[in-house]
Amino acid sequence: MTLPLFPSTWMNDEHRMLQDSARRFFHEQWVPKAALWREDGILPRQCWAEAGAAGLLCLSTPADYGGGGGDFGHEAVVIHETSHANLSGWGGGLHSAIVAPYLFRCGTEEQKRRFLPRMVTGELASAIAMTEPGTGSDLQAVRTWARRDGDHYVINGAKTFITNGQHANLIIVVAKTDREAGAKGTSLLLVETEAVQGFRRGRKLDKMGLKAQDTSELFFDDVRVPVENLLGGEEGQGFFQLMEQLPQERLMIAVQGVAAMQRALEETLAYVKQRKAFGRAIWEFQNTRFKLAEVQATVLATRAFVDTCMAAHLKGELDAARAALAKSWVSEQQGRVMDECLQLFGGYGYMMEYPIAELYVDARVQRIYGGTNEIMKELASRSM
Prior knowledge:
It is built from 11 helices and 9 strands. The chain has helices at about 15-30, 35-40, 45-55, 70-85, 90-105, 110-120, 240-275, 285-315, 320-345, 355-365, 375-380; strands at about 125-130, 145-150, 150-160, 170-175, 185-190, 200-205, 215-225, 275, 280. The strands form 3 sheets. A 4-stranded antiparallel β-sheet has the order 2-3-7-6, with no helix packed on it. The longest helix is centred in the middle third of the chain and has 37 residues, at about 240-275.
């Protein structure tokens, strides 16, 4: 059962056509294989080429570099449909809507032409290596060091919780190029994993949720990259480049949350209308109807908030404080909705064979990654 929703105000005909195309692709090509991918703990590498061939990668990347030439709305449509299809293992949103924008907004012309066309096709799978053991969300505290040595940088350090970590062959590494300069000593370096020595992938981490996503540890031991791989070509710009893109990442998390909540409501409605208890469908009990009416109100209100943020972002008017509020508030509503929906499944809701169980465990990390909700509220409060 798919519930009709009022069209999002920010969507145009092109966005809606893309939504139909993406939904068909995911449900016909990937959803039938999703259970196997969850068991394997990773999507096959060929998924990147398949997504590229279907035109689902780097839709906001300018056409001059092989991309779709669209806006963030196109990326948001694909992110929404991925989440609605319950394909939580796919890291295409990070690749297309986080890593690619770093390149086409901050990169040199040579960097854009060298990397972006191959990201569009899926030849390059990308990741961004921010988090380190012991630093969490504190990006100013990174210890990974990139020392200038002639016409190369030599990188040493360790990263953890890296999305696409096992497949990525292009990684933006957050590193200190000046240990004494605080935030101004941070730079972003582009590491082509197949062209360097000293890079190794650690464990594919065993997570509570997001079972098909290859979240990993990464290690850099005297990894030499040419100075041409310094993003933007100027040292000390990394922290500012990160801050510029983080609001979009947080809006992405909100878009994911709305789509997952909608899917949970659809799954629960279908279940309670066919499942019987005491001789009648669970839907016929007033408590069930009241609970799901409340859930629907939450989904509609949350979606309206995210749509407003989307419209602002597409105009270049979404500030960091509102993006932080969207990320924190939506992810908290998502957790409540998943809990209410799972309860109506009874014991079956606790079984991983039911999509609601996967939606429930996957939702928990939404309050953590992209900056914990506690940090989001602190950021938002500073603008009050």
